[in-house]
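Figure 2 data, in text form.
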Amino acid sequence: MVPMSMQPLNGPPGTAHLYARVIAGASLPGFLWGGGDSIPERGLSLPQVRFSAEEIEAYRRVCGGSGPDLPPAMLHVAGFPLAMYLMTSRDFPMGSLGMVHIANRIEVTGQLPALGEYEVQAHAGNARTHPKGTQFDMVTSASLDGELVWHETSTYLSRGSGLPSAGATAERTSWPDPTQNAEVVGLQIPSDMGRLYAAISGDRNPIHLHPLAAKAFGFRTTIVHGMWTLARCLAEVEGELPGAYVATAGFFKPVFLPAASTLQIDRGDGKLTVWLTTEDTRHAVVHVQFRD
């Protein structure tokens, strides 16, 4: 979907204010959100996005990885306030409280200089039915000097909601199992990882911050962000990534904090696959396909 209009903003919306709108909207459904039966065809843009060296260092302390360029998933942080603004607008037809991030796709088509100045755009669309509600895509892109260098599709599930305008039921993606030759790396995820990632990303969904808040949404305790999982998997293989690639992630089961997990890494001809597992539970997979 191409938005009918793209509204430029002078700066990123404050996520603390947006989460207040989320909570207020949940208390007054149909008044603060739920104003239609389809996703509005519009988008938002930030013409000048630049990360400081201190922000990049803080991101890497939480998500791992090293290198001279911007971490592969860090531009999601720039687009997230735009996504929240769109999802908490009065005419957005689904409430964002308790919304689940179920899949993600990042395509890198050019170099991501750490201190570059990017134009970031975001819009929502592609609603389709799901057995548990409605899923849709939040599409974010980043350009450098007018050239598209990064493109992301984040797929969310709005549980229990249905849209008359939603398309056919989404097809399930099948993922391969790790091979016997997969490298295994131990990974300890501390109990405060949700709060740590929230501090650097602005994603302060209550299910990541406090056990009581997580229990209110059906989780036995806090869970880690899906985007932290994606970022951490990519960080493990960052030094092996080429100049252009597509990273596709599936999020299956929540990672309850704290967690003693493992990363299983398969390397193939022009591809990498990283699984995150805890004991016998597979939580997420990130598949990287190299591009010429």
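Caption note: The chain has six helices and eleven strands.
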